[in-house]
Amino acid sequence: MTTYAPHPLYFDQGKRARVRDLDGRWYQDMLANYGALAHGHAHPALTRAVNDQISLGTALGGPSILQYQHAELLQAHVPALERVRYCNSGTEATMWALRTARAYTGRDIIVKIDGGYHGTHDWGHVSAFLSGGTPHRQFLPGLPPTHLAPGVPKTVLESVVTVPFNDAQAVADVLAQLQGRVAAVIVEPVLGVGGGVPARPGYLEQVRSLTADDAVVLIFDECATFRLGTWQVRHGVRPDLSTFSKIVGGGLPIGVFGGHTDIMSLFDPARPQPIYHASAFGGNSLSLAAGIAALETFQETEIAHLDRLGARLREGLDSAARDAGIVGSAVGEGGLSYFHFAATPPQNAADTVAAREGRDELRGLVHLNLLNEGFLTARHGLMCQHIVTTNTAVDSFVAAFADTLTLLRPYLADYHPDLLADQPARETAVPKPSIDGSGQ
Question: Could you read off the pLDDT of 229-261 as tens digits, one per residue?
Fold first, then answer.
């Protein structure tokens, strides 16, 4: 994801909501390390916590009080985390959550969302949005083909089934056909790299009910959606297990998985044949110290600020597209957004794929011009803010985006005329923001 034409930028410094490349040019950071950061760069509280801890040791080879302190803070955000365990990344967290569900239920099959991204382990790279690969027929009839990332064995398809996002009936049908055989359903409350698509109202409530009826473990992958203020708490749907990473490590590598005590008790070393979980750097002191500082400074005030910034951004992008006479819309929730060149917002990963079909060059041109204007985003369209991002920075980005769309109208007329709306383009060019990142 970090490579793009003509060449990727290399960075040497980050400060608050800006980053600097090796040529000394500053960019307003509208990416936040693909959503993994919330506090900006070199946040004083996080920097102080890391500096204080490193002199005491980083990985002492046994339990530490920091693990309890971090777990208590995280549980205050997520009451469903009755017991937690630590690892090194979101990939590990989702891998362990799935293994835990299999051990708890004695079943083998996992149901995941088409286009859902849960890291790079084999079970997660079945129809992961960025996995590519050759389409394969699923072992259940009536389901769309699935894809395996290169290097993932075909045998994985014997134990993983994929269903479309926002389609509770598809989940019901699969669980009915595989009654008593499904260990877990894993889902992102907002489809992340699949296009920033939020769960439609009632969807995850229905999935919760369906999984409970067949004693299937429901796993929410909140590695990305924790920046929204923990989706499950804000929307009142309690899963059996949850996974976290990114923000809860304060900018350092971390993974967390946990949930109901009766499930997590499988790791109790005092019980017969416990699940063996080893990790040399899981729950290391440096990541936990940074994570504690991050959790202490990521409360309702900060989350509300990100909510307002995200809403301001999406409204601004929609307005920019209308004014430029270009078909498209922004989607997302809180401080996580995408812009799609499509007449209607996507409801699942297949919709996102259709919106991007044949438009790779267009997205590349948008990304490149935004870099030229002094704004760092993801080439595939992800936009995230920091708690130190200002309204002025968002408005400047919207102006740069509007300018980019106006600049690209002749290109669209030649190559994507279907994206030109009936209204004419804005007659006067939108003023360009400064590119030195001033004003945050």
Answer: 999 999 999 999 999 999 999 999 999 999 999
Q: What is the pLDDT of residue 2?
A: 79
What are the CB-based long-range contacts (under 8 Å, 24+) for 237-241? Answer: 237/204, 237/205, 237/208, 238/80, 238/208, 239/80, 239/208, 240/101, 240/211, 241/97, 241/100, 241/101, 241/184, 241/217
Tokens of 274: 């416990």
Which domains, and CATH codes, for the chain? 11-42+299-419 (3.90.1150.10), 44-296 (3.40.640.10)
C-alpha to C-alpha distance for 337 and 332, rounded to whole angstroms: 4
> pTM of the entire structure?
0.93
pLDDT by residue (tens digit) across 35-87? 999 999 999 999 999 999 999 999 998 889 999 999 999 999 999 999 999 99
Query: Which band of pLDDT confidence, cut at 50, 70 and 90, is reported for residue 129?
Result: confident
Q: Which residues face 15 on adjacent strands?
A: 18
Pairing of strands 255-259, 83-87: antiparallel
Alpha helix locations (H) across 379-440?
A: 391-415
Q: What secondary structure does DSSP assign to 14-56, as a single string?
A: EEBTEEEETTS-EEEESSTTTTT-SS-BS-HHHHHHHHHHHTT
The first and second tokens of residue 407, run together, are 């600049």
- Catalytic positions, written as ranges: 117, 221, 246
At 412, list the tokens. 């669209």
Residues 6+ apart with CB under 8 A from 195: 115, 129, 331, 338, 340, 346, 349, 351, 352, 355, 381
Return d(Cα 369, Cα 373) in angstroms, integer: 6
Whether 266 has a pLDDT exceeding 60, the answer reads yes
How far is the C-alpha of 178 from the C-alpha of 253, rounded, in Å?
Answer: 37
The pLDDT of residue 437: 37
59, two tokens: 């990985």
What are the tokens at 84?
């937690």
The residues near 291 (Cβ < 8 Å, ≥ 6 apart) are 70, 248, 249, 250, 252, 254
Phi then psi for residue 147, to 5 deg, are -125, 145
